[in-house]
Write a structure and sequence with these properties.
By secondary structure, this protein is of the alpha/beta class. The chain folds into 2 domains: 263 residues, Alkaline Phosphatase, subunit A, CATH 3.40.720.10; 105 residues, 2-Layer Sandwich (Alpha-Beta Plaits). Helices cover 31% and strands 20% of the residues. It has an 8-stranded mixed beta sheet with strand order 10-9-11-1-12-13-2-14, sandwiched between helices. The radius of gyration is 20 Å and the shape is globular.
């Protein structure tokens, strides 16, 4: 049994299209392979752990004796978004996909948002986050109207210049939007998207904030907390679970900040789970279809992983994974329906091939069993006994 478990989600780092990817328009996608094919991927720690030994990975060079247990997980939930992926990791299967708005939000939603905020609305279309501020930013500066947009995910996003709508006010507006987007209009997340700069050189800031719906049932996080252990979140984990089951939240402004905070937490004495999300793989490189940037971000993470490993104790468990794909070589700008990698490292871990897991929820089951927490109420099958 472990005293501490670290789960690090490389947000969007999928490892190959799922069998049903064609239903999502994602046939042939492979986030990791797109980075490997640049010839510039340099991830010696992940390689040594067995990342390229995963069954059917189709890229990279496997090693003779992996230093960790390795495998991949299929997604059982109906979706390919952040909330669904993380909830499944924590033991909840979402049988119904969260509602999306490919044609924009209905007039009733816009009217209620205008009444609640006293501001007009611009855009109301699916849009790239960087392009929407370029195309509507000047009009927003002139009018103070909210830039409201969505994507292929179940999200309502509100962009505003920090000089026009200060960040605390934007957060309040998003809380009002969260109240509106319930029931028949419910979306997985409301996202505040502050930006700065002058036209046409606008830049999004690190003051993003997500307002999620609460999980529809208790998750592994709740069970761990109820067992009297800590659940420490790093990055947007707290937002994704709407604070449910979190005992300590640590916000981050970048992958570097996230790994820095994780290394600091590893130096502390605690009992429970440290759950980390590194969002820039997705937000800065995947959605923007920036293959060189994604590749370099993986290289940087691998070096930081090398700094984290010596901080881990003999009975610690480290799980590296993802929540969906976002192939930077794919068409469009949206997530891709992919397997997620599964790397499990620890000084007491046997470097076995975990094969293809039926669901992301095997991770949550394993975390709970490692911490001595009963998770029979959750989906998934623990692989702990295979690796110890």
């Amino acid at each position: 049994m472990a005293k501490r478990v670290f789960v690090i989600v490389l947000d969007s780092c999928g490892c190959g299209a799922l069998p049903d990817a064609a239903k999502f328009g994602d046939e042939g996608t492979h986030t990791l392979r797109s980075c490997a094919e640049t010839g510039n991927l340099n991830i010696p720690n992940l390689t040594a752990m067995g990342l390229f030994n995963i069954d059917g990975i189709g890229c990279g060079t496997p090693v003779g004796q992996p230093a960790a247990a390795y495998g991949k997980c299929a997604e059982r939930s109906a979706g390919k978004d952040t909330t669904t992926g993380h909830w499944e990791i924590a033991g909840l299967i979402s049988d119904t996909p969260m509602k999306t708005y490919p044609d924009g939000f209905p007039q009733e939603v816009l009217d209620r948002l205008k009444k609640a905020t006293g501001r007009e609305i611009l855009c109301n279309l699916p849009y790239s986050g960087t392009e929407v501020i370029r195309d509507y930013g000047r009009q927003h500066l002139e009018t103070g109207a909210l830039i409201v947009y969505t994507s292929a995910d179940s999200v309502l996003q509100i962009a505003a210049h920090e000089d026009v709508i200060p960040v605390p006010e934007l957060y309040q507006i998003c809380e009002q939007a969260r109240e509106i987007m319930q029931g028949e209009f419910a979306v997985g997340r409301i996202i505040a998207r502050p930006f700065v700069g002058t036209y046409p050189d606008f830049t999004r800031t690190a003051n993003r904030h997500d307002y999620s719906v609460s999980p529809f049932a208790p998750t592994a996080l709740d069970l761990i907390e109820q067992a009297g252990k800590q659940v420490i979140s790093v990055g947007k984990i707290r937002d994704i679970f709407n604070g449910q089951g979190i005992t300590e939240g640590n916000r981050t402004v970048s992958n570097d900040d996230g790994m820095g905070k994780t290394i600091q937490i590893a130096a502390r004495d605690f009992e429970g789970l440290c759950f980390v999300n590194l969002v820039e793989f997705d937000s800065a490189y995947g959605h923007r279809r920036n293959i060189p940037g994604y590749t370099q971000a993986l290289n940087t993470f691998d070096a930081q992983l090398g700094a984290l490993l010596p901080q881990l104790r003999d009975d610690d468990l480290l799980i590296l994974t993802a929540d969906h794909g976002c192939d930077p070589a794919a068409h469009g700008t949206d997530h891709t329906r992919e397997y997620i990698p599964l790397i499990v490292w620890g000084r007491s871990v046997r470097p076995v091939n975990l094969g293809t897991r039926r669901g992301f929820s095997d991770i949550g089951q394993t975390v709970c069993e490692a911490l001595g927490v009963d998770a029979t109420s959750l989906a998934g099958e623990s692989f702990l006994q295979q690796i110890l």
